[in-house]
Description:
- By secondary structure, this protein is α/β, with parallel strands linked by helices.
- The chain has one domain (54-373): Alpha-Beta Barrel (TIM Barrel).
- The protein has 13 helices and 19 strands.
- Strands 1, 2, 3, 4, 5, 16, 17, 18 and 19 form a 9-stranded mixed sheet that branches.
- α7 (215-229) packs parallel to α8 (244-255).
- It is globular and about 70 Å long.
- The chain binds dihydropyrimidine-2,4(1H,3H)-dione (DUC) and zinc ion (2 copies).
Amino acid sequence: MKKTLIKNGTLVSPEKLYQADILISSQKIEKIAANIPSAGTEIIDAKGKYIFPGFIDAHTHMGIPIRGTTSADDFETGSIAALHGGVTTIIDFTVQDKGESLMSSLKRRKAQADKKTSVDYALHCNITDFQESHIAEIPKVMQEGVISFKAFTAYREAGMQLNDRQILELLWQVKLAGGTVMFHAENGDMVDFLTTKYVKYNKTTPPYHALSRPAEAEIEAVTRILTLNKFIQCPIYFVHLTTYESVQIASMARQKKLPVYLETCPQYLIFDESIYSTADGHYYIAAPAFRRKEDKEFLWYALQDNLIDTIGTDHCPFNKAQKDAGQREFHKTPNGLSGVETLFSILYNEGVKKERLSLQKLVSLISEEPARLFGLFPKKGILLEKSDADLVIFNPVGKGKITAKELHSNADWTPYEGMETEGQIESVMLRGNWLLKNGNQIDTNFKKGRFVPAFVD
Ligand code: DUC
Ligand code: ZN
Ligand code: ZN
C-alpha cells in the first residue's frame, strides 16, 4: 500500500506546537521530521492546519439499558458519530447482568462491538453485582486487556450499588492485580431518599431532578471513597465530577501523592441547573445533575490548573420520544446525553477560543491522558514514531453551527443545538485508514474498528 505523507501541518502535543511532516505506512507512524522526501507517497498538504493524535473518549455507553429503554446509539451509530468528531478510540463499559461472571459480560460486550464499530475501542469492566466468585476473575479480565473496573455508589434499585464492604474488597483486589477502580460517585441512599420524598409530594418536574441528586451526594461519595482507599491506595478514577468541593477534596488527596485521577464531561462545563427550568428541561436529565454556575466556572479553571486529568463525554443519548415518555417526571426520564461527536468542538470553541484552555492542555485531556491512564499509551494518544497512525487534521478557519441534523448520532437532538463554532475537523485517520477526508466519510460501511487491549506498564 502507498505510504501517506502529511506535510506542513502544525502538530499538537501536551508540551508544544511544532511544524513537521508525518510519514505513515502499514497503519503506523513511520517518521516525524522536517522535509520528509515525498517520492511515491500520497501527499496531503496540511498547511495552516493543526494535527492532533486521534481523540480518545474514555467514557461512552453505547446501547445500554436505562429506565426501561436503551441508549439511542449502539456501537455502529455511536462510532460513526465518534469518527466525525475526531474520536478514533472509545472506551466503553461491559454491562454485567445479575449473577453473571465478569468474563461472560466481557465476551458479550465485545460481541456487540466487534464488526460494528468504525473506530477502535477498549473496555472498562463494570462490576454491578460483586460476588465472592468474581474476585478470582479480576486478574483474568486484566489478562484479556481490560485493566479498569467501575463501581457505582448509586442505583440500588437497578441492582448496581456496591456497599462500603464491597468497595473495600474491590479496591483491595484490583490493587493486588495492578488495575484501577473507577467510581460513579453519588451517595445512592441520599438520592433514593430525596427522590422518594419529592415523588410522594408530587414534586416531579425537572428542577427536582437536581434537588434529588444534590452536590452533597457527590461530595459525600468522593470523600468516603478517598477515606476507604487510604488503607489500600489503589489507583482510583472518579468519572464525571461536577462540583467545586468534590474536585477540591480529591485534589487534596493528589497533593499527598495518592493515585487519584479525575474526569469531568463537556456538559458540566456548559450547563448549569437553570437548564431544568426551561421548556425542554427534561431532555437534560443526566446523572450527576447540573450544578451552580460557580461550579461550571471552577471546572474550567481546574482543567487548566491540572486538577482534572481527562474529559470523557458519558455519551449516552436518548431520543426526544424516549425522554418524553417520562412525561417530564424526573424519576421516569432516562438519564443521559449525547456528546462523543461534539467533544472536541465544544472544548475548542468554549475552551481554547475563550482562553480557558490551551491547545496543549486540550490534547492532554482528550488524547494523551486517557491513553496513559487506561493502558493504551503510546500505541494511542500521541503522535510518535511506531504509534498507531490515528490522527485528526483540524482547519481552524471557517465558521459553523452545531445542529442535530448534521450530527451522526442516532439521537434526534443535541444539547448543543445552535452553538456557533469556528474551525472544522477536515480529516480523520485510524491506523492509516482515512475515515474522513476533507469532510467526507470515505467508507460508510467501514466497521473495522478493533478491540485495543490495555496494558499496565
Ligand atoms: N449517567 C447518565 O446520565 N447516563 C448514563 C450513566 C450515568 O452515569
Ligand atoms: Zn455515571
Ligand atoms: Zn457514565
